[in-house]
Write a structure and sequence with these properties.
alpha/beta; Arc Repressor Mutant, subunit A; 2 domains; 5-stranded parallel sheet; 4-stranded antiparallel sheet; 8 helices; 41% helix
Amino acid sequence: MKILLVEDNPELTQNVVHYLTNEGVVCEAVGNLFEAEDRMLIHSYDCILLDIMLPDGNGLSLIEKIKGLGGNTPVLIISAKDSLEDKLMGLNLGADDYLPKPFHLAELLARIKAIVRRSKFDGKDELVFREICVDHENRQVRVQDNLVDLTPKEFDLLVFFITNKNRVLGKQAIAQHLWGDYTHDLDNLDFVYQHVKNLRKKICAAGGTDYLSTVYGLGYKLDEHAR
């Protein structure tokens, strides 16, 4: 799971990034609207954590831009401005949830999981693709009712493929989604190949079909029509 935090408070930013990282979430942080818009043009995120009061403007304007461009990235507003007017305005603009400051980090993570579950899992705890069943809450995968032992990154990789089925995903896009921006300047992305290889092997070993195809020179694709 990859999150973008838009927050100008350094201490809160450090605490949120540290906590979410320890929970296995890739969390990138920016301190203003300009940087947030720049990141969103280049990268995709499972959820955006958005403060309202930012140095270069009101965070609500970012929601308008996301929704105005037809984007469906879920947004969780985190703000010290806890007035009913701000909350209603944010939700009416398309925000998915509103969490007033101060908040417990465990509650923040629970809200993020709930939003992502609604966004990618249609509000269910399970994501089903053919004979593959992904349990989001318990982070378990079953193939033909056989439990598959996946690493955290393999689990996130499978969800990334299923929620982007029939689309070609480049190695760089996969690396950045699972490991964050630090992979941008790496020349060697062989670790992506290894993770895809391991995921294929484990699914097939559990009795599943290999739906993953290599698109040479581009990346990989989960093909729902594979046999």
